[in-house]
Design brief:
The protein is α/β, with parallel strands linked by helices and 346 residues long. Helix 8 packs across helix 10. Helices cover 32% and strands 20% of the residues. The chain has an eight-stranded parallel barrel with strand order 3-4-5-6-7-8-9-10, surrounded by six helices. Bound molecules: guanosine-5'-monophosphate (5GP). The site of guanosine-5'-monophosphate (5GP) has 25 residues, from strand 10.
């Protein structure tokens, strides 16, 4: 047994210190980022916010709505080949630049990705997603994907430490997904005791990735636009959102009406609900590591996006960053023991 004494921080432990700025208005801030990727020689430009590959978030409808705003969706892995055919037939081709195909690390997943990449060469991104990115099997799967799809941009995760970011980048991934346990419907920390405070994970993993010319996605734990700003301030190239994009018209899943109010069901991809739906129940050797919640229905996602991007632009003006790219350089975090005032909102 060993104890690491360094303090590790979550979003709730810091604020971003304001700095003198020459910017006159939020409208002067650009949230677009352009990336070149480590292994593919491809580049991409857009607003680097991603809807999570959960079946009550990363839907085709979400991909259409966010893609039209140049934001990404990692489309969940439970759509069939026929669903993909129908989506691609009807979707504006430009949307596909903002779509990633999600996959697990099993042989059926591998076959489906191969089919989709072959059938629809316009798809550029593959997101190889497992709960625990530390297994050797996962690293060899990423290598296999790189060999099979040399021209595709590969996202891989999840991990939370620099050495594993490096291993996955060297193994063929372009972008590493960072986060174990911070998610809104995740119970990994409850069931296993395993995790890493998300802001420190982002800071440390971004440093490791940027040293090798790779990128990271801060995945999970953002509850409010301010957390998204802190993730970018900490060095995240992309930020992935589950809960913040759930409960909208585009999010899929059931809506329920109780006493005249509309609610949506939202659940973790390792929850009993998801396993009952997609895997015929929870296997007897494992526990579910996700929960199912009912959240107020929130209307079209574009309004949430506007609020989020408005917040981010404002962060940039507070620290004098005229582009999102500058935000990390302009960020000084201060450690705090309070956050916002909740007297009227609970
Ligand atoms: P959120 O933005 O809701 O805080 O976090 C979204 C992230 O939570 C997802 O992108 C994914 O990494 C993670 N996640 C989704 N479902 C589950 C689950 O059932 N268990 C765990 N441990 N993590 C989950």
């Amino acid at each position: 047994m060993r104890i690491e004494q360094d303090l590790k921080l979550g979003f709730k432990d810091v604020m971003i210190r304001p700095k003198r700025s020459t910017l006159k208005s939020r409208s002067e801030v650009s949230l677009l980022r352009k990336f070149d990727f480590l292994h593919t020689g491809q580049s991409w430009e857009g607003v680097p916010i991603i809807a999570a590959n959960m079946d009550t978030v990363g839907t085709f409808e979400m991909a259409k709505a966010l893609g039209s705003l140049r934001m990404m969706t990692t489309v969940h892995k439970h759509y069939t080949k026929d669903d993909w055919r129908d989506f691609i037939k009807s979707a504006d081709p430009e949307i596909l630049d903002y779509v990633a195909v999600s996959t697990g690390s099993g042989s059926a997943d591998e076959e489906k990705v191969a089919f989709l990449m072959n059938e629809y060469p316009q798809l550029k991104f593959i997101c190889v997603d497992v709960a625990n990115g530390y297994s050797e099997h996962f690293v060899s799967f990423v290598k296999k994907m790189r060999n099979a799809h040399p021209e595709k941009i590969i996202m891989a995760g999840n991990v939370v430490t620099g050495e594993m970011v490096e291993e996955l980048l060297l193994g063929g991934a372009d972008i590493i997904k960072v986060g174990i346990g911070p998610g809104s419907v995740c119970t990994t920390r409850v069931k296993t005791g395993v995790g890493y405070p998300q802001l420190s994970a982002v800071i440390e993993c971004a440093d490791a990735a940027h040293g090798l010319s790779g990128q990271i996605i801060a995945d999970g734990g953002c509850k409010i636009p301010g957390d998204v700003a802190k993730a970018f301030g900490g060095g995240a190239d992309f930020v992935m959102l589950g809960g913040m994009f759930a409960g909208h018209d585009e999010s899929g899943g059931e809506t329920i009406e109780v006493d005249g109010k509309k609610y949506a069901e939202f659940y973790g991809m390792s929850s009993k609900t998801a396993m009952d739906k997609h895997a015929g129940g929870v296997a007897n050797y494992r526990a579910s590591e996700g929960k199912t919640v009912r959240i107020p229905y929130r209307g079209p996602v574009t309004e949430t996006v506007q609020d989020l991007l408005g917040g981010l632009r404002s962060t940039c003006t507070y620290v004098g960053a005229n582009r999102l790219k500058e935000l990390t350089k302009r960020t000084t975090f201060i450690r705090v023991q309070e956050q916002h005032n909740t007297i009227f909102s609970g």
